[in-house]
Amino acid sequence: MKQRATAIGVVAFLGMVDALYLTVMRGVHVPCSVTGGCNEVLTSPYSEVLGVPLSTIGLAFYFSVFCFAVLDAFEVAHLLRWVFWLALPAFVITLILLYLQAFVILHFCQYCLASAAFVSTIFLISAWPRRTTQNLN
Amino acid sequence: MSNKTKPLIVIVVAVVVAAGIAFYLSRQSTTTASVASSGNETPIAVNPGGGHIRGKATAPVTLVEFGDYECPSCGYYYPMVEEVLRRYPDRVKLEFHHYPLIQMHAHALAAAMAAEAAGDQGKYWEMHDLLYKNQTQWARNPNPESQFLAYAANLGLDANKFMRSLKSPDVEKRILEDIQRGSVAKVEGTPSFYINGQALNPLPKGVDDFAAIIDSTPQAAK
After folding, report:
1. Statement to judge: residues B89 and B32 lie in one domain
2. Domain A3-129, what fold?
3. Would you call B21 an interface residue with chain A, using a CB distance cutoff of 8 Å?
4. Is A20 in Cβ contact with B19 (below 8 Å)?
5. pLDDT in tens, A52-68
6. 3-class secondary structure, B203
């Protein structure tokens, strides 16, 4: 089994749990013992795009990445390149969301920070030069 | 088992497990939060009394809000609450309570005191509106007192009286009493809303959600 695809699959799975949790908890006060600002972030106008919650968009992203990673890991299809093209805009959006939390909303949400870490990891693994990871594959 | 079946099984199992974990965690999270709203076993102190009333005193539906002027979510809900009051002028009144999250919001207490100080001169709701409408401006100011003073001047308040109230221990005591009411009501965050005694959890997502709850609330007064 390909280690790079497996690693992406594991991280995407964690992202799915995170995004599913936020989707289920939409509109409910979530516990926020680490950063303290989750509810400010999650109910801000930036928490949705055209009425669609970002957590739902994130869930669709993680699910797609997970499916691609699994199919690649089982060598059904070579889809890691597509993971990179999904992760690239996701990474840019993640940077924008981090900026909004830091400078506009002035609060941080621990679940969003976790998601930022997952997206960044997926992006970095998928962007890693293939030559250096060929042995892993 | 074919090579194409295995990944499908992995995907299905992973989705089921992820959903299970997420739902389990959400149940854990909401158990504490909804103890109060479940109503049957642990009635919440949803009729805290006191507070500032906006709307007709005889309105049969009381929308209680525990709010923090510096909290962005409260600022987000402010126009919704105003729209609800506009939509139901005879049926709904707002009972606002201060619940400044002092540890998170450096100026929340000062803002609540500014509202109370304006209230001492009969302009509580006018200052309430100004604080929410201009939240993003004063909240970023390291010293928002000058802005509160400017708002007071705009409202035609006596500046000296306003400053005295702004520093008054009695005014602070009123806010601390509201915080105490919130603690009794098990307020976990701001804004927290209650309609005729029932906690709104999850929070309404828009004016129509508020309207649906109000429409289904019996006319009986709280």
Report:
1. no
2. de novo design (two linked rop proteins) (1.20.1440)
3. yes
4. yes
5. 889 999 999 999 999 99
6. coil
DSSP for residue A102: I
pLDDT digits (tens, 9 = 90+) for A104-135: 888 889 999 999 999 999 999 998 876 544 44
pTM for this structure?
0.59
Please give the helix or strand (H or E) that residue A83 lies within, else none: helix A80-99
The domain in which residue B15 lies consists of 1-40
Question: Contact at 8 Å (CB) between B60 and B190?
Answer: no
d(CA B37, CA B199) in angstroms, rounded, equals 5
Rounded mean pLDDT of chain B? 85
Tell me the domain boundaries of chain A. Answer: 3-129
CB contact under 8 A, A67 and B11: yes
CATH of the domain at B163: 3.40.30.10
Overall size of chain A counted in residues: 137
Angle between helix axes A80-99 and A54-73 (nearest 10 degrees) is 150
For residue B18, is it within any domain? yes
Within-domain flag for B220: no
Total domain count for chain B? 2
Domain shared by B126 and B206, yes or no: yes
Contact assignment for A20 to B22 by CB distance below 8 Å: yes
Interface residue B127 vs chain A (CB under 8 A) = no
Closest CA relative to residue A31, chosen from B71, B76, B25, B202: B25
> Residues B118-155: pLDDT tens digits?
999 999 999 999 999 999 889 888 889 999 999 999 99
Give contacts of B11 with chain A, Cβ < 8 Å. 66-67, 70
Name chain A contacts of B22, Cβ cutoff 8 Å.
17, 20-21, 23-24
Q: Which of residues 85-114 of B touch A (CB under 8 A)?
A: 103-104
- Residue pairs spanning A and B at CB distance below 8 A: 89
